[in-house]
Amino acid sequence: MTAPSNIRAITEEKSLQFTWPDNLDAQLPFRFLRGRCPCAGCVNEFTGERMVHVEDIPEAIEIADVAFTGNYALKIVWSDRHDTGLYTWEYLRELCESDDATVLTDGL
Ligand SMILES: [Zn+2]
């Protein structure tokens, strides 16, 4: 999976905007992204059951920091200090194509 060509935080809309090389341009709300955290503390490693849901996340959630991990994922540090989630490009792309994303420009 190729990396997004651009990622930027839209603070006023509390969203992260992803632009992909095929021109798909989509925004994902911080709260949704935090609620979809793929780490072992949020999803049971053995059963795959999600233990932290979007509804559990405060509306005021913010991103404290983001960092690239290798060339395959984005590590997001949240304002609630949760920082164990690695969002792979593949996973982010999947979220950008989900119904919860606001699509600005459709890819080809
Ligand atoms: Zn998590």
Feature tags:
single chain; 108 residues; alpha+beta; NE0471 N-terminal domain-like; 2 helices; 7 strands; 13% helix; globular; binds zinc ion
Q: What is the structure about, briefly put?
A:
By secondary structure, the chain is an alpha+beta fold.
From N to C, what is the helix and strand string? EEEHEEEHE
Major β-sheet annotation: 4 strands, antiparallel
Counting DSSP E segments of at least 2 residues, the number of strands comes to 7
Structural class: alpha+beta
CATH topology: NE0471 N-terminal domain-like
Beta-strand percentage range: 25-35%
Whole-number mean pLDDT: 95
Please tell me the CATH architecture by its name.
2-Layer Sandwich
Name the bound molecules: zinc ion
Number of domains: 1
- Please state the CA-atom Rg, rounded to the nearest Å: 13 Å
Please write the CATH class name.
Alpha Beta
Notes on the protein architecture:
The structure is a single chain. The chain has a single domain (6-101), classed as NE0471 N-terminal domain-like, CATH 3.30.2020.30. 13% of the residues lie in helices and 32% in strands. It has helices at 30-35, 89-96, and strands spanning 6-10, 15-19, 25-29, 63-69, 73-78, 86-88, 102-105. The model has no long low-confidence stretch (mean pLDDT 95). With 108 residues, it is of the alpha+beta class. A 4-stranded antiparallel beta sheet has the order 1-2-3-7. A 3-stranded antiparallel beta sheet has the order 4-5-6. The structure holds zinc ion (ZN). Zinc ion binds at residues 37, 39, 41-42, 82, 84-85.
